[in-house]
Each structure stands twice: as structure tokens, then as C-alpha cells.
Amino acid sequence: MKRRLVLENGTVFEGTGFGSLEPSVGEVVFNTGMTGYQEILSDPSYCGQIVTLTYPLIGNYGINRDDFESITPFVKGLIVKELCEKPSNWRSSYSLDEYLKMKNIPGLSGIDTRKLTRMIRSAGTLRGAFAGPDEQVEDVVRRLQTLQLPTDQVSQVSVKNAYPSPGRGKRIVLVDFGMKHGILRELNKRDCDVIVVPYNITADEVLQLKPDGIMLSNGPGDPVDVPEAVEMIQQLIGKVPLFGICLGHQLFALACGASTEKMKFGHRGSNHPVKELATGKVTLTSQNHGYTVSSINEDVLEVTHIALNDNTIEGLTHKEAPAFTVQYHPEASPGPEDANYLFDQFMEMIHTTEKEGEEVCQNA
């Protein structure tokens, strides 16, 4: 089955279709990971995007039951150089093609993904469409050039109602902006009593849950499109220890007077080097974001980490309140688990804050 990818700049890639037969439109981005396509497909942060995988062979270990980052995928399409139709892995339950058919996600194989990636690196992310055989390219390009990308991705992917993930340890309110299940797994490993709540929860509603700590999750889209979350975070800073990841990092920065901007083609992959400024230590990280914190209020925030590839901000800490954030994904394990210690750092921050509070009460 032939399928075409049409980009807003008029470029057409023709290859072989797999997965769903449905037409699809989205922002075309690329991910440089050699493995992890199942996690990529199920990461809610890819909501509204067509993902190009730069590694040339995809699908060789199939799809298994354990490696999903969400139950429902929100990706708009998948592009690969070569599709493996007969995976070989003892955990495999489905082929990649079978999974995409089940989830109604279109795929495209057999194109020059290197050329497409270089085009995105040069021009920036491009809007694209899987065009039907009867559609005129000129009509598709015209439609793409006037297409308004959605701004409600967080509301699409966030949980609608709060739910618990019980434990006997510290109570953590996990605000779901498009949460990867890996974050929940890391908190469960530490026996946290987690309550997952919607993105539009108010600060008062959070405090009514009596949290020991607050986690701000990853998620899709532009952080300025979620002003209610920024207001909620502003009211919580200094009241409860806080840890933010990816979109949570950006929203926290906005709440502290920083600014954000759209990146040319973003960071998406599993081997991005990040330097911790205090120690000089370099960590290999998993990343997926198209926006970055561009400037901060230095009276309020301190930069703790930077990306070595482009010197963008990768970590922040509040100068007075118990709160820190990172742009990358410490819950991910693309091979190394270098950044996993940040969850322990979060737990230690909670213990330290509680101890300081007890000392204040004793001295009062």
C-alpha cells in the first residue's frame, strides 16, 4: 500500500503505508533513540505529532505488555526507514504494525528518514499530512500552511478525575499534565502514597489532600497554553516541597517569572548529555520537548543543569522554597539510569523540610 507524506514546504515523501489507513495531520518531529519505540508511541507528550525515528530498523522486538507509558497513545503517526514485520523477542505480544492498527495510528516506511531529519534540523519542525492517493499535493500544502495547531493538548491527555496509587510512605500529589507511567512507578518504588490529579486542579484542592510533596509531570504542547496550572503552582511554592519534570519544569519556571520559547526542532532522544553545574558531572538523559526555558528571574531561581549540545536550561532550583525541576526525564531508562537519583533527592527534600518544620514548632 503506497502512502505519501506531504510537508507544508511542498516536499513529498512516498513510501509504504502500515498501521491504520486513516489520514492524519500533525507536527512532524524526529527522535534519535535506537530503541524505545513502544515508550515513544505511548508517551502523551507526543500528542498531536507525527514522529520520525532516525534509527533505520524499527519493530524488531515487537510490542509487549509492560513497556507502555500510557494506556492510550496520542501520537498522530509514525515514520520509519525499515519496518520489521516479524519481530523476535520472548516478551513480544504484537508486531508494531498490528499495534498501530489496533490503536488507529497510521505509519509510513520505506522513505529516506535521514533526508527528512536533515530537513527538520534545517527548517525546524514542519506540519505534515499523510495524504490520500486521490488528494492533490497543492491542496494538501495549502491546507497545511493555514492549519492552526491545537493548543489544548494537556486537556486531551490529562486524567479527568483524581485517583489513588496507595502506599505507606509519603503522600505525593502527582499533577497529571500528560504523565508517563514511569514517574508513577518511581514513586511507587519508594512506597509513596500517590494521588494522581487533573491538570486543572486548584491550589486549595491540592492542599486539601494534605500532601507531603507535589510532583509536576511531563506533558505536551506550549506551557503558556496552561495558565491555570501556572497560577496553581504560584500559590503552592513554599507551602509544600515540589519537583517538576519536563512540562512541569517549564510551568514552574513561568510561575517564578521566567519565560519560555519554542525550539527550532526540540530535544527528542535517549542520549542527550546534561551537565550539573555544581559538580561538573555529566549525565546521559532521555528527553522529549519542543519548548525550553529561555530566561529566568535570577533573584528567585538558580540554573542547576544545562544541555551540553546547545547550552539550554535543563534544571532549576528555587532560591528560598523547597522546589527543583529538570527538563529531562529521570524516570526513563534508555540503558543508563543516571538521573534516577533525583527521585531520592525529592524524598530527601521532603524529609528535610519536615524536620525543619518540627524544629520551628519546638522552638516556638
TrEMBL record:
<keyword id="KW-0436">Ligase</keyword>
<comment type="function">
    <text>Small subunit of the glutamine-dependent carbamoyl phosphate synthetase (CPSase). CPSase catalyzes the formation of carbamoyl phosphate from the ammonia moiety of glutamine, carbonate, and phosphate donated by ATP, constituting the first step of 2 biosynthetic pathways, one leading to arginine and/or urea and the other to pyrimidine nucleotides. The small subunit (glutamine amidotransferase) binds and cleaves glutamine to supply the large subunit with the substrate ammonia.</text>
</comment>
<comment type="similarity">
    <text>Belongs to the CarA family.</text>
</comment>
<feature type="binding site">
    <location>
        <position position="290"/>
    </location>
    <ligand>
        <name>L-glutamine</name>
    </ligand>
</feature>
<comment type="subunit">
    <text>Composed of two chains; the small (or glutamine) chain promotes the hydrolysis of glutamine to ammonia, which is used by the large (or ammonia) chain to synthesize carbamoyl phosphate. Tetramer of heterodimers (alpha,beta)4.</text>
</comment>
<dbReference type="InterPro" id="IPR029062">
    <property type="entry name" value="Class_I_gatase-like"/>
</dbReference>
<comment type="pathway">
    <text>Amino-acid biosynthesis; L-arginine biosynthesis; carbamoyl phosphate from bicarbonate: step 1/1.</text>
</comment>
<protein>
    <recommendedName>
        <fullName>Carbamoyl phosphate synthase small chain</fullName>
        <ecNumber>6.3.5.5</ecNumber>
    </recommendedName>
</protein>
<dbReference type="Pfam" id="PF00117">
    <property type="entry name" value="GATase"/>
</dbReference>
<dbReference type="GO" id="GO:0004088">
    <property type="term" value="F:carbamoyl-phosphate synthase (glutamine-hydrolyzing) activity"/>
</dbReference>
<dbReference type="GO" id="GO:0044205">
    <property type="term" value="P:'de novo' UMP biosynthetic process"/>
</dbReference>
<dbReference type="GO" id="GO:0004359">
    <property type="term" value="F:glutaminase activity"/>
</dbReference>
<feature type="domain" description="Carbamoyl-phosphate synthase small subunit N-terminal">
    <location>
        <begin position="1"/>
        <end position="131"/>
    </location>
</feature>
<feature type="region of interest" description="CPSase">
    <location>
        <begin position="1"/>
        <end position="170"/>
    </location>
</feature>
<dbReference type="InterPro" id="IPR035686">
    <property type="entry name" value="CPSase_GATase1"/>
</dbReference>
<dbReference type="GO" id="GO:0006541">
    <property type="term" value="P:glutamine metabolic process"/>
</dbReference>
<keyword id="KW-0028">Amino-acid biosynthesis</keyword>
<keyword id="KW-0055">Arginine biosynthesis</keyword>
<dbReference type="InterPro" id="IPR050472">
    <property type="entry name" value="Anth_synth/Amidotransfase"/>
</dbReference>
<feature type="active site" description="Nucleophile">
    <location>
        <position position="246"/>
    </location>
</feature>
<dbReference type="InterPro" id="IPR017926">
    <property type="entry name" value="GATASE"/>
</dbReference>
<feature type="active site">
    <location>
        <position position="329"/>
    </location>
</feature>
<feature type="binding site">
    <location>
        <position position="250"/>
    </location>
    <ligand>
        <name>L-glutamine</name>
    </ligand>
</feature>
<dbReference type="GO" id="GO:0006526">
    <property type="term" value="P:L-arginine biosynthetic process"/>
</dbReference>
<feature type="binding site">
    <location>
        <position position="219"/>
    </location>
    <ligand>
        <name>L-glutamine</name>
    </ligand>
</feature>
<feature type="binding site">
    <location>
        <position position="221"/>
    </location>
    <ligand>
        <name>L-glutamine</name>
    </ligand>
</feature>
<feature type="binding site">
    <location>
        <position position="247"/>
    </location>
    <ligand>
        <name>L-glutamine</name>
    </ligand>
</feature>
<feature type="active site">
    <location>
        <position position="331"/>
    </location>
</feature>
<feature type="binding site">
    <location>
        <position position="45"/>
    </location>
    <ligand>
        <name>L-glutamine</name>
    </ligand>
</feature>
<dbReference type="Pfam" id="PF00988">
    <property type="entry name" value="CPSase_sm_chain"/>
</dbReference>
<dbReference type="InterPro" id="IPR036480">
    <property type="entry name" value="CarbP_synth_ssu_N_sf"/>
</dbReference>
<keyword id="KW-0315">Glutamine amidotransferase</keyword>
<keyword id="KW-0067">ATP-binding</keyword>
<keyword id="KW-0665">Pyrimidine biosynthesis</keyword>
<dbReference type="InterPro" id="IPR006274">
    <property type="entry name" value="CarbamoylP_synth_ssu"/>
</dbReference>
<dbReference type="GO" id="GO:0005524">
    <property type="term" value="F:ATP binding"/>
</dbReference>
<keyword id="KW-0547">Nucleotide-binding</keyword>
<dbReference type="InterPro" id="IPR002474">
    <property type="entry name" value="CarbamoylP_synth_ssu_N"/>
</dbReference>
<feature type="binding site">
    <location>
        <position position="291"/>
    </location>
    <ligand>
        <name>L-glutamine</name>
    </ligand>
</feature>
<feature type="binding site">
    <location>
        <position position="288"/>
    </location>
    <ligand>
        <name>L-glutamine</name>
    </ligand>
</feature>
<comment type="pathway">
    <text>Pyrimidine metabolism; UMP biosynthesis via de novo pathway; (S)-dihydroorotate from bicarbonate: step 1/3.</text>
</comment>
<dbReference type="GO" id="GO:0006207">
    <property type="term" value="P:'de novo' pyrimidine nucleobase biosynthetic process"/>
</dbReference>
